[in-house]
UniProtKB/TrEMBL annotation:
Family as reported in the entry's similarity comment: Belongs to the thioredoxin family. DsbA subfamily.
GO molecular function, one term: oxidoreductase activity
Keywords tagged on the record: Disulfide bond, Membrane, Oxidoreductase, Redox-active center, Signal, Transmembrane, Transmembrane helix
SUPFAM superfamilies to which the protein is assigned, alphabetical: Thioredoxin-like
Coiled-coil annotated spans: none
Membrane-spanning segments: 25-48
Protein name as catalogued: DsbA family protein
Domain (Thioredoxin-like fold) ranges: 78-227
Keyword Plastid among record annotations: no
Record keyword Calcium present: no
Family matches, as Pfam families: Thioredoxin_4 (PF13462)
Length: 266
């Protein structure tokens, strides 16, 4: 027959283990609660204040592709990706867009190619308040909400491109109006407005030319290889360069470049 002392010992052992298990549950429960609280606070912060700032050392493209873009065999990777590095205040970029923009848009829409738009600020010279930086950063904000709206915003910025040496430039209110006309909401509590107000992409745009190793704009790459195109040249030259990379791509036709308006008669 067991002694009272042995019973006492067993009971003590049992109680100790139970207490350990209880402490484990308390610790685990407390950690879980902390994780949940942190997640709730983070979500609340993002909802109230918008996205956190983008990595200032990141090279981030706005990737545009149709759902039926031609891909490499057995992959989801587009067969041809045209990368455009541009500054919205760069006058040569404006000429390039006027010459090749309609052809690029057509090639995107018919699924022939994908395009990576890399918006940089070279003319802004590191000034976060410069037009180049503000317009470029806002383009990323618009693209976050709607890629089709980004395409319209991109077109609007070039159609309304100020002179590089202008005495003044469109403010953010004017640029937000372009964004609104392009199809995104721009009220004070809307994501694009918060993105702009918080300068989410300002540092990234300011640093991206350096981080990407880009010396000037426009810089054009096809499948990662830099190529040259005469800014006011023939859009068919772009078609020929794409054919050299992927000769079997269908629907490769150019849109004729707009002709300059005739000079007024004296």
């Amino acid at each position: 027959m067991p002694s009272k002392s042995s019973k006492s010992s067993k009971n003590a052992s049992y109680d100790l283990k139970a207490a350990d298990r209880k402490r484990d549950w308390v610790v685990k429960g407390g950690l879980t609660a902390l994780v949940i609280i942190f997640a709730v606070v983070l979500v609340a912060y993002i909802v109230m204040n918008g996205k956190p700032k983008a990595d200032a050392d990141k090279v981030q493209a706005i990737h545009i592709a149709a759902s039926n873009v031609v891909t490499k065999p057995d992959t989801k990777e587009p067969k041809v990706t045209l990368a455009v590095y541009e500054d919205f205040l760069c006058p040569v970029c404006g000429v390039f867009e006027k010459t090749y923009g309609p052809t690029i848009a057509k090639l995107i829409d018919n699924g022939a190619i994908a395009v990576d738009y890399n918006i940089v600020s070279i003319i802004g010279r590191g000034d976060p308040k410069s037009y180049s930086t503000r317009a470029g950063a806002m383009a990323y904000c618009v693209a976050d909400e709607n890629k089709d709206a980004f395409r319209r915003f991109h077109e609007a910025l070039y159609k309304n491109q100020p002179e590089e040496t202008a005495a003044s430039f469109p403010d953010n209110a004017k640029l937000l109006e372009y964004a609104r006309q392009s199809g995104v909401a721009v009220g004070p509590n809307d994501p694009v407005s918060k993105c702009v107000a918080n300068g989410v992409y300002v540092d990234m745009v300011n640093n991206m030319a350096r981080n990407a190793g880009i010396q000037g704009t426009p810089t054009i790459k096809i499948n990662g290889t830099e190529t040259s195109l005469v800014p006011n040249g023939d859009p068919n030259s772009l078609i020929e360069k794409i054919k050299a990379v992927a000769p079997d791509l269908p629907n490769l036709t150019a849109v004729p470049a707009p002709q300059p308006a005739p000079a007024p008669h004296p």
